[in-house]
Amino acid sequence: MTTLSPARLTREFPTRYRLEAARCAACGEVMVPPRLVCPACGTREAETITLNPEGEVLTYTVIHVAGSAFKHQVPYILAVVALDGGGTVTCELADLVDEAPAIGMRVRLEFRRIQEDGEAGVIAYGHKAVPA
Amino acid sequence: MREVAIIGVGINDWGELWDLSLRTVWAQAALAALSDAGVDHVDSVTVGCMSGGLFVGQEHVGALLADELGIAGVPATRVESACASGGAALRTGFAEVASGLADIVLVTGVEKMTDCSGDEATAALATAADQETEVFFGATFPGLYAMMARAHMAKHGTTREQLAAVAVKNHHNGTLNPHAQFRREVTIEGVMGSTMVAEPLTILDCSPITDGAAAVVLADLETARRLAHGRPIVKVSGVGFATDRMALHNRKDIASLEAVQAAAQKAFAMAGRKPSDVKVAEVHDCFTIAEIMAVEALGFCPQGEGGKFTEAGCTDLGGPIPVNASGGLKAKGHPVGATGVAQAVEIATQLRGEAGARQVEGARIGLTQNMGGTGASGIVHILEVAS
Q: Which of A62, B63, B312, B367 would suit a FRET pair with B385, their CA atoms being 20 to 30 Å apart?
């Protein structure tokens, strides 16, 4: 089972490449990626928005034992980031040099290579958080 | 709705069962439960199994296993809610008996996890999280629970030692359970010093990869009384199931388990009981932090105090509310689809007074809490001795 088939990756491009999301027309809930119905209020109307890439670390871990696609990267930091304009994402926290990760740390999402399907396979891109 | 009782229980010896196939592992537990119940037929079979497809390349396990037991002809189906598949299978069986659709149901759970590589098993388990928004970006299952642990420590002051105390307790209980995968003690220092998996969780904070199965036979109360032969009758008096947002990052509070709380409230309301009535509980300690958050969500202690509650010995055998007398997922093992059913096997065994060295004396009301993913599925059952 690969999760990196071209069709599967391509349909995620809007959110992973351009940070596209949806904002509920009624309650303002931000949906990442967009969906047909708001999980907060049930409204079926939403506008397409671009996420504000700035945000704050809600929680994090340092992963030492990874799945096969991420083994070469261990140890790496994984975080939950709440974005300033709404929406919350899970992604890697990268580019920390002397700084230790911390809850409340200010970060910004950047476009990065996430994983690849073998040496000659598809390369999958998305976002990682870096110190703001 | 008819009242429903557990009239038979069965479990096999859990571990890395390299000489046994999925079907044989399952049949051992199923046959044990049928013998224990003393029945020669069932009307229906449910199978809690997270992923026959990913672990052994086998789907359609309902028909496969009914055939294996020589009872082809009965309705038999797999029920799936990730790590809560067993609890979901129990609830499905309960609904069949309560509604009158069936009189006797064989509720089972099974997982055969060591036929594939460690990497494949890790990938299979990760399918319980959101593939597109969590796993794609590098999340592992222990990693997600580690982030819950970190949030709980920051919000409530839970300590690393308190997490380790869960493993120490459950490994101790496991030494008293002949079916447990791990029957050895561990220490606080040993847990904290073991191989790091996802900070702050080490390998001894994590439940293992396990082959195993469990089964219970359910019947309506009238049938149960007819077959009791003087043994205590264990009723399923409360059933609660709730879901939460799938991805951890979409939860209202990363440091609590809302689906478990909601499921517990439903189950307690149905049974007409409250948390303090429960005298023995099996909870879903897939990671040490999960047990701390579960005892809070179940109302055994206030929100945020699960760490202190555990450290103080309140959940020890002999404490006010013994939790995971069986050794829990931590020491007994965690064949994912089997776990929810095995919890009911343990509580029914406790309520019958047949738990041997780990018996909680005088327990007449018990609870099981099974959980899928990082808490997106929460299932609670309340069991009690029928008067």
A: B312
Q: Are B116 and B55 in contact (CB under 8 A)?
A: yes
Q: What is the dihedral of CA A93, A94, A98, A103, to 10 degrees?
A: -10
For residue A79, what pLDDT is reported? 98
Scan for tokens 């929680």, then name that residue.
Answer: A59
Nearest to A88 among B146, B199, B250 (CB): B250
Q: Which of A63, A74, A96 to mutate to test the interface with B (most CBs of B within 10 A)?
A: A63
CA nearest A15: which of A92, A87, A118, A108?
A87
Q: Which of B149, B292, B349, A50 is nearest to B141 (CA)?
A: B149
pLDDT, tens only, B195-237: 999 999 999 999 999 999 999 999 999 999 999 989 999 999 9
Q: Is B150 on the interface with A (CB under 8 A)?
A: yes
Q: Residue B387: pLDDT band by 50, 70, 90 thresholds?
A: confident
Task: Give the separation between CA B150 and CA B256, rounded to whole angstroms.
Answer: 12
Q: Which residues contact B40 (CB under 8 A, 6 or more apart)?
A: none
Smallest Cβ–Cβ distance between A59 and the set B131, B135, B150 belongs to B150
b or e along B93-114 (b: 16 or more beta carbons within 10 Å of the residue's beta carbon)? bbbbbbeeebbbbbbbbbbbbb
How many percent of chain B have pLDDT more than 70? 100
pLDDT at A86 exceeding the cut of 60: yes
> From the candidates B250, B251, B253, B256, which should be mutated to test the interface with A, based on the most A CB atoms within 10 A?
B250
Chain A, nearest residue to B148 by Cα: A59
On chain B, the residues whose CB falls within 8 A of the CB of A81 are 249
Residue B382 is predicted with a pLDDT of 98
How far apart are alpha carbons B332 and B324 in whole angstroms?
9
Q: Do A90 and B150 touch (CB under 8 A)?
A: no
Check residue A2 and give its pLDDT: 60
pTM: 0.97
Inter-residue contact B379 to B240 (CB < 8 Å): yes
CB A46 within 8 A of CB A20: no
